[in-house]
Amino acid sequence: MVATVGDHRAEVTKVVCDTFRLDPALVEPDAPLEELGIDSKGRIKLLAALEIYYGVTIDLDRLDRFTDVGSVAGVLAEALGTRGSSGEALK
């Protein structure tokens, strides 16, 4: 079975909460990262945490897509080579 973006939202929420010491109950998938106190330096820290946690490489060019947990899950799905919500294969 192939994972989808939605499958990664809970995992990304956990990484966000662990990395920034946030209460998971306060992290909504569509809340802007800025509202969670995650600025541009924080997005780089999150990217590094995801790379370590999942053993993947994520291009810095993708960092501008780190706007909320859902979009981060989408970038992670691409990095893992899984399928997006549209069902097409992502690289």
List keywords for this structure.
91 residues, mainly alpha, 3 helices, PP-bd_ACP, Acyl carrier protein, Non-ribosomal Peptide Synthetase Peptidyl Carrier Protein, Chain A, ACP-like_sf
Description:
With 91 residues, the protein is mostly helical. It has one domain (3-80): Non-ribosomal Peptide Synthetase Peptidyl Carrier Protein, Chain A (Orthogonal Bundle). The protein is built from three helices and no strands. α1 packs across α2 and α1 packs across α3 (69-80). The protein starts with a helix and ends in an 11-residue tail after the last helix.
Quick synopsis:
The chain has one domain: ACP-like (Non-ribosomal Peptide Synthetase Peptidyl Carrier Protein, Chain A, Orthogonal Bundle), CATH 1.10.1200.
CATH superfamily: ACP-like
Helix content: 40-55%
Largest sheet: none
CATH class: Mainly Alpha
CATH architecture group name: Orthogonal Bundle
**How far apart lie the N and C ends?**
17 Å
Radius of gyration, Cα only, in angstroms?
12 Å
Per DSSP, the total helix count is: 3
**What pattern of helices and strands is seen along the backbone?**
HHH
Number of domains: 1
SSE inventory with pairings:
Elements: H1 5-20, H2 40-54, H3 69-80
Helix pairs in contact: 1-2, 1-3
